[in-house]
TrEMBL record, chain A:
Subcellular localization, as worded in the UniProt entry: Cell membrane
Transmembrane spans: 9-30, 97-119, 131-156, 176-197, 240-263, 283-304
Taxonomic source organism: Paracoccus aestuariivivens
All copies of domain ABC transmembrane type-1, residue ranges: 95-305
The keyword Membrane is annotated on this UniProt entry: yes
Main subcellular location: membrane
GO terms assigned for molecular function: dipeptide transmembrane transporter activity
Protein name per Swiss-Prot or TrEMBL: ABC transporter permease subunit
Keywords linked to the UniProt accession: Cell membrane, Membrane, Transmembrane, Transmembrane helix, Transport
Pfam families in the record: BPD_transp_1 (PF00528), BPD_transp_1_N (PF19300)
Membrane-protein topology: Multi-pass membrane protein
Highest classification ranks of the organism: Bacteria, Pseudomonadati, Pseudomonadota, Alphaproteobacteria, Rhodobacterales
From TrEMBL, chain B:
GO-annotated cellular components: ATP-binding cassette (ABC) transporter complex; outer membrane-bounded periplasmic space
Signal peptide, first to last residue: 1-26
Species classification: Bacteria, Pseudomonadati, Pseudomonadota, Alphaproteobacteria, Rhodobacterales
Keywords of the record: Signal
Gene3D superfamilies reported in the protein's UniProt record: Dipeptide-binding Protein, Domain 1 (3.90.76.10), Dipeptide-binding Protein, Domain 3 (3.10.105.10), Periplasmic binding protein-like II (3.40.190.10)
Solute-binding protein family domain: residues covered: 74-399
Superkingdom of origin: Bacteria
Protein localization: Periplasm
Name the UniProt record assigns to this protein: ABC transporter substrate-binding protein
TrEMBL record, chain C:
Record has Ligase as a keyword: no
GO BP annotations listed: transmembrane transport
Organism encoding this protein: Paracoccus aestuariivivens
Name this protein carries in UniProt: ABC transporter permease subunit
SUPFAM superfamilies noted in UniProt: MetI-like
Keyword NAD: no
């Protein structure tokens, strides 16, 4: 396991460097010069040239790359072309919105999905098993922003129960305000996410129920709940953890849309604005940080899977 | 000059008196919560901050020698006296005394010189840089006097100076902080969400009618509207779609005001390339578009149809909607004369934000009636600057032009739309060298008539400037010229 | 009960397919014609009212069905094909290649569909249905590949594979006989989910202003422009949302029903 961890960590670091390079190249394939974000109608040639010099888009691409890499080695994500502010502190501020949003949604989704998913599989023949399954079907069939728009319309505007959008200017210093601001977005994401999670949990439960080891365990005299807890959850959890990893990652990235709907100053809105303005340092910085987080999640999911299911280890070691 | 200043002062007194009457029940400790779609990118208007910074800071945090009032007139602010030499090339300004910056330092002539040179500097990204190009030298004989020497006469100098924030020359980089003389100082700024201002105790003039303001920024119009509906803000500065207004019209809790904007949506042709180098083609397309219908589709019964590039708040405005009025039959005839009886096909570069895609669809349907096929090509704002504005690699494009007094763009043959009429270029240049406002207006009016007869571009409509507030909030500017939003007179019960 | 799911799914998808095909030859109104007042309420003439420009909204929702199906089918085919191939290859590959591929997949998954779409759009000079399909398909293939890789490894860890290997069965046969049939039900569920998610992803791209331009207005674009008028014309938000939900629901039901048919053992459990 120790060697595996070491190797996996090495791969993680390589991936991050590769991701950085890929990002750098891809961003520069986009049409439109980044200096345009600094201009307005009426700008003359000299102003255009000065803007290009300021953002460095007048340099040959290999020099831009060199600067990017040397900055990166010093954990310097550069300064925004548009605002001139350093990118990394800005990302940290934005994370104070996006991370709680993502983690809270994820936890809420698990709390909803795991018990309901298992129940809907175990009781698939009862009316409530069927109903749960049907509701989860509805949940995965809608775009998250549609739920957001409807929730704002009904909860925030019609009944004035919660704020429709925004985040307190003082951030978490105004804890009550920040908390209230995140309720609707969290519920929006969790509703949609728990629906798809529930399906995976249900599917995994079915897999477990039909598996030989469960039958063997019962034949050896274990009661059904005993067999399920001792063997079922352990086995069923393997694919679910993989899915959880992917879901957590996609929630993080999916926050772009939800932050837009609820006008939250998170990482997603920073990325979207950065893309619109071709603000390379901002886009690179946000994507590098979010890639890092997603890679870390994948890393953790893999490690946990191995801990639970030693057979995965054996296949690799055995060949 | 001095009579004019006097009138402005009387007007100022009158409005102050008016203000005093309404202030009676207002809460002077109130903080006005403003919702806006225009977040400043940084806090320096010469560093590509966008229109949001003008909204938040013009005349609120920074003052200038002159102010562009909400009615389009220009009034002195930090300039107490303005004298012009007989040849019109030397302007002498005397500064108000007792003015201090928020940092506590007094205002001096050196600050003014520094501030003007910030805008004209090599690295300045101000869209106003060119308008100050007539300045040859700035001298500061003493702390209270600024002398501006010009290469050529410039009737618009006071107007142009109204864009020049007076910044403390010791302030340094102001992309993340401020040091102005205005009635408000920056209290806090949170990128991506909000900016708050508080009244400055040391302000030289009358105290504002409120204690401060909080600008909240949104990217979706729907979220902005919701904020007002749910009482998260008191006022929203520019409503982008009339359809959302219904929710504010129904109730006595909200007030809708419609002012005159200077934002014009136009379809600009590349006048250098065929078929748009042919005036008959341009006139034909102008006559094919039912602008009334377009305006009502996009803005309902608000805004106004344009016959030329000049909006009614410019002194040289006249109604030219009859020059190429809606008439598809004569358009067909013109196209036939121009050699396109069967029409032609062109690509319309369409910015990807409202209302351009809708307008593009509308134009496509309209122009199809005379056999002209439009290929809609959607581009981002950046691509627009690179491809259309800089490389001039386009056939036609949609764009909104937001500036006040900007017909002069047609006097520049190198401008992106490539309109080149020496007579217009001459008129625009000589208008600037006028001796009086009336003379300037006459010349620009004449130039605009020629531009209109040439159908240089297809001027579609003037956006309405719609401000919606709750009924408790009063005293805000309704026209918002050049995206300004004066806070000092706003009161809240 | 199982059959019911299949039937409901088939009917929902069938309606969408019929409408999508119908739009190729007939529409109630010219989609660009301003045939009614602005934001008119639903009526006999305009079943879903009209939009801001007075154009028939039902017509636009009908066209949306065609767009959604095109994007969904295209992206699911592309993503399923690339994803399954990559996943199986990774599971069989030697350690180094497996790790490299797994890491690449992780990066791809970490890479927002949003930016991928922008890049594809940029590289091909303008947004179109094709660019949306390509971007969503690539993003989807990474997710499928990751799942297939893990599932395949699980199958390969089973004793009977070792037995089959010992009896001289080639890897190609093992994939065809043991791996694919074993992983098919789960992968099918995943692809079905991804089909629905592709439709939703396209809607999200359009909502953010990165989708196919008019006149190929997708449901997402309709939702975006109707969002600010949800108070006075809620039908604008409700109609495309319900249509989208019906299609995705239908696809998922259909997939579920099919899985039960393919895997009767599970149905019995």
């Amino acid at each position: 396991m120790g060697r595996y961890l070491l190797r996996r960590t090495f791969v993680l670091a390589l991936s991050l460097i590769a991701a950085g390079l890929v990002l750098f190249v891809l961003l520069r394939l986009l049409p439109g010069d980044p200096s345009a974000a600094l201009l307005s109608v009426g700008a003359d040639e000299a102003q255009i040239a000065a803007a290009r010099e300021q953002v460095g888009s007048d340099l040959p691409i290999w020099m831009q790359l060199g600067k990017f890499l040397s900055d990166l080695a010093r954990f310097d994500l550069g300064k925004s072309f548009v605002s001139g502010a350093p990118v990394l502190p800005e990302i940290m501020t934005r994370l104070s919105v996006t991370l709680p949003l993502t983690v809270a949604s994820f936890l809420l989704a698990i709390v909803i999905a795991v018990p309901l998913g298992i129940v809907s599989a175990l009781r698939a023949d009862r009316w409530y098993g069927g109903l749960l399954s049907a509701v989860s079907q509805l949940g995965i069939a809608v775009p998250v922003f549609w739920i957001g728009i409807l929730l704002i319309w009904i909860v925030a505007v019609k009944f004035r129960l919660l704020p429709a959008s925004g985040f307190p200017m003082k951030g978490w210093e105004d804890a009550a305000g920040a908390f209230r601001a995140l309720i609707l977005p969290v519920v929006t994401i969790a509703l949609v996410m728990s629906a798809s999670l529930m399906r995976y949990v249900r599917s995994a439960t079915f897999d477990v129920l039909g598996a030989d080891y469960l039958r063997n365990a019962r034949a050896l005299g274990a009661s059904f709940p005993q067999a399920l807890i001792r063997h079922g959850i352990r086995n069923g959890a393997v694919p679910v953890i993989s899915i959880l990893g992917i879901e957590l990652a996609s929630t993080l990235l999916g926050a772009v849309v939800v932050e837009r709907v609820f006008a939250l100053p998170g990482l997603g809105s920073m990325l979207l604005l950065g893309i619109q303005q071709r603000d390379y340092p901002t886009v690179q910085g946000v994507l590098l940080v979010s890639t890092l987080m997603v890679l870390l999640i994948g890393f953790l999911a893999d490690v946990i899977q191995r801990l639970i299911d030693p057979r995965l280890r054996e296949t690799v070691a055995g060949r | 000059m001095s009579t004019k200043r006097f009138t402005a002062q009387i007007l100022g007194l009158a409005s102050a008196a008016l203000l005093a009457a309404t202030v009676a029940q207002a809460d002077p400790a109130a903080v006005i919560r403003v919702g806006s779609l225009y977040e400043p990118q940084n806090l320096d208007n010469t560093a590509g901050a966008g229109q949001g910074i003008n909204e938040a800071f013009n005349d609120n945090v920074y003052e200038a020698l002159f102010r562009l009032n909400d009615d389009g007139t220009v009034a002195p602010v930090l300039a107490e006296k303005h004298d012009v030499s007989a040849d019109g090339l030397t302007h002498t300004f005397t500064l108000k005394s007792g003015v201090t910056f928020h940092s506590g330092e007094p205002l001096t002539a050196a600050d003014v010189k520094y501030s003007i040179e910030r805008v004209t500097a090599e690295t300045s990204k101000s869209s106003r840089k060119k308008s100050l190009s007539a300045i040859e030298a700035i001298e500061t004989p003493d702390d209270k006097t600024v002398v501006i020497k010009l290469k050529s006469k410039s009737i618009s100098l006071p107007y142009n100076l109204s864009y020049v924030w007076v910044v403390n020359d010791a302030a340094g980089d102001i992309t993340g902080k401020e040091d102005g003389t205005g009635p408000y100082k920056l209290a806090d700024w949170k990128r991506g969400s909000a900016l708050s201002l508080e009244a400055s105790d040391a302000y030289w003039g009358d105290k504002p009618a409120n204690a401060g303001a909080m600008f909240s920024y949104f990217t979706e119009a729907a979220a902005l509207n919701n904020a007002l509906l749910t009482d998260a803000v008191d006022i929203i500065t520019s409503v982008q779609s009339p359809d959302a207004l219904a929710q504010f019209e129904d109730t006595s809790a909200f007030k809708i005001s419609e002012g005159k904007s200077t934002t014009k949506q136009i379809m600009a042709y590349n006048d250098r390339v065929a078929p748009f180098d042919n005036v008959k083609v341009r006139k034909a397309l102008a006559r094919t578009v039912d602008k009334k219908m377009l305006l009502s589709a996009i803005w309902g019964d608000r805004g106004m149809v344009l016959g030329s590039f000049v909006p009614p708040t410019d002194a040289w405005y006249e109604d030219l909607t009859s020059v190429d009025a809606y008439d598809p039959e004569s358009a067909k005839a013109l196209l036939a004369e121009a050699g396109f009886p069967e029409g032609f096909t062109f690509t319309l570069e369409t910015p990807n934000y409202d209302p351009h895609p809708i307008t593009a669809e509308f134009l496509k349907a309209e122009l199809a009636k005379v056999g002209v096929t439009v290929n809609i090509h959607v581009i981002t704002a950046n691509e627009w600057y690179t491809k259309v504005y800089q490389a001039k690699d386009f056939q036609a494009t949609l764009q909104e032009h937001v500036n006040h007094r900007d017909v002069g763009f047609y006097g520049n043959p190198d401008f992106y739309w490539g309109y080149n009429n020496p007579q217009v270029t001459e008129l625009v240049a000589s208008a600037e060298a006028s001796d009086s406002d009336a003379q300037q207006a006459d010349k620009l009016r004449e130039a605009n008539r020629i531009i209109t007869e040439d159908a240089a571009s297809n001027w579609l409509f003037l956006y309405p400037q719609i401000v919606v507030s709750n009924t408790k909030t009063t005293g805000y500017p309704v026209n918002g010229l050049n995206a300004q939003f004066f806070l000092r007179g706003i009161t809240k019960e | 009960m199982k059959k019911t799911t299949l039937w409901i799914g088939a009917i929902l998808v069938g309606i969408n397919v019929v409408i999508a095909l119908l739009t190729l030859v007939w529409l109630p109104y010219d989609p660009t014609a301003m045939s009614g007042g602005r934001l008119a309420a639903p009526s006999w003439a305009h079943w879903a009212g009209t939009d801001r420009l007075g154009r028939d909204y039902f017509t636009q929702v009908m066209i949306g069905a065609r767009i959604a199906l095109t994007v969904g089918v295209g992206a699911a085919l592309l993503g399923g094909l690339i994803g399954t191939t990559l996943g199986v290859l990774a599971a069989f590959a030697q350690r180094g290649f497996d790790d490299a591929l797994a890491a690449t997949l992780d990066i791809l998954i970490a890479f927002p569909t949003l930016l991928l779409a922008m890049l594809v759009v940029a590289a091909s000079d303008g947004a179109s249905l094709g660019t949306a399909i390509l971007a969503i398909g690539i993003a989807m293939s990474a997710i499928i590949a990751r799942l297939v890789r893990i599932l395949t490894k699980r199958v390969l860890a089973q004793d009977y594979i070792t037995a089959a290997r010992c009896s001289g069965l080639g890897w190609g046969r093992i994939v065809l006989v043991h791996v694919l049939p074993n992983i098919a039900p789960t992968v099918l569920v995943a692809i079905a989910l991804q089909f629905g998610l592709a439709v939703i992803a396209e809607a999200s791209l359009s909502y953010l202003g990165l989708g196919a331009p008019p006149p190929n207005a997708s449901w997402g674009q309709l939702l975006q422009s109707a969002q600010s008028t949800v108070f006075n014309a809620p039908i604008g938000v409700i109609a495309p949302g319900l249509a989208l939900m019906a299609l995705v629901l239908g696809i998922n039901f259909l997939a579920d029903g099919l899985r039960d048919l393919l895997d009767p053992e599970r149905g019995a459990a």
